[in-house]
Amino acid sequence: MRYRKIIHESMDECLATLQQLGFDTAHVNDGYGRALDFVMDGVINTLGTIATAIEKLMLNN
């Protein structure tokens, strides 16, 4: 029984975090695509930042 309570609390925390990030948790099953897009956008932005930093380093040498 305690195990279920822990899982329930963890799920509530995950949903609260998703809401803070702007996801509509009423449609959690539909939101996986949006969540993946969100993560991929972050990865793309990070790679762009890294590429810009490397480019600046190479131009300074």
Summarize the helices and strands and which ones pair or pack.
Layout: H1 2-20, H2 31-60
Number of helices: 2
As residue ranges, the low-confidence spans are none
User: Biggest β-sheet: count, sense, barrel?
Assistant: none
The average pLDDT value, as a whole number, equals 78
The arrangement of helices and strands along the chain is HH
Short structural description:
This protein is mainly α and 61 residues long. It has helices at residues 2-20, 31-60.
Record keyword descriptors for this entry:
mainly alpha; 80% helix; single chain; 61 residues
Walk me through this protein's architecture.
By secondary structure, the protein is an all-alpha fold. The chain has one domain. About 80% of the residues lie in helices and about 0% in strands. The longest helix is centred in the last third of the chain and has 30 residues, at about 30-60. The model has no long low-confidence stretch (mean pLDDT about 80).
